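Subject — a protein and its fold
Encoding — discrete vocabulary of local shapes:
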Amino acid sequence: MSSSATEKAEVDALIAQLGSSQDDDRKASTNNNASGGDANSAGSERKRVQIRRNSGSNSNTQVVGSPTDIHGHLLQKNAKISKKYNRKSRQGKGRGLAKKGGGGGGYTWGALGSELLEEDNEDLDDDDLADLQYNQVKAKHIAESSKSSLENKFTKLELIESMDKDVKPLIDEYFANGDANDVAQCLRKFDFKQSGGGEFISYVVTRALEKSNVHKELISRLLHDLNGIILRSNDYINGFNSLLESLNDLSLDNPECSTDIGKFLARSVADKCIDNTGGKYFNQFKGNVKCSKMQAALDKAETLVSMGDFYFLNNVWNAQSSGFRPVRELADRMNIIIREYYDSGDSAETIRCLKELNVPHFFHEFVYELMDFCLEKNTERAQQLMISLLEPLTKSAVITYDQLKTGMLRLFDDIDDIQLDVPNVYDQLQTLLKQLEEKKILNQDITSNAPQKGRKRMTSEGESTKQVKE
């Protein structure tokens, strides 16, 4: 009885154990189905780590976990992997990618642009954030100011290009003929009320700064002649204000531009182009000028205007437009230069004064007057001074060969009239020509045209009677 009871208890225990094991198997299978992907991924990850650890081996032997083909041979790509040029992590960490996104290695800061990524940016405190905001505002202000300055530069560049295209030919022609009415007629097609005549004034004055005093005098006359016809008082004010503000740039090519701008300004005030009643034009600049060159130009103009000598201001350039003077006036001016040279003996100053006349096409008159003066003086000093002056003039081509020849031929033609005042003019002329030919100032082409003194043949009374009968 007892034995049967014991067996029954053992059977019940085995049945209960079998039921619990089946329940556990069902739960395990359910869990395995739910977490099968994770287990597979974890296993594949472990496999990759194992392969990566053994990938640096120099041996060709197969290792556990290495992928093989159907024949059991090790795959070729994993057959032999050298440590050289291998930038993957050897510690089994990471995803097998290059360090720092391909920007790793010694003395490197990471991949290009990595500083812009959010994950690489550090947290900023209040001070750093304030500095960052300040830098951003400053960069925006600089960008806006540079943009406006670039726009102004492009505008000025376009204006200069248009002036070079339209106005420059007119000014060059005006320098040649001095006809202000022609310039005024050509400028009527430009709408200065819309574009402003200040730019025109600034342009023509800038052109004149590069020229001689004769051209500056012509521009001063042009500004006076255009007043009330093409230009208005505001145009003169705007033009000269623009010139005063750009003196730093103009001084790079014209160091004396401050003085010249001051003279132009004073001349415009004297010609009533700018209203300076009670000194109101100059008073607006007092205490507001920071540029030394601008202050120098204003001081020069104010000094000239305060003198009150408007006749002097009309000749402020000390150079009339010589090409438009009467011939007699030019001849008188050349005679004055010759007499001053005879008194001083300074050939350099004489050449400078001759150049200032700016009439190279009329220098044959200077040659004629110089030779006539030397023949009238009839002294050794006059001859030496004449030779000493003609030699540098011809060698430097201040007086061209054509002008020299024309002047000498004119002298040869008038030699009979000169003989009335200088009886021995033929002898003097031959002596001068010989010295000039020795100095290579004259050549045979010119001296061969020199007149020869005629000789009267003495005849007897019988010969003269015979000639009369014949």
User: Anything to note?
Assistant: The chain has a mean pLDDT of 75.
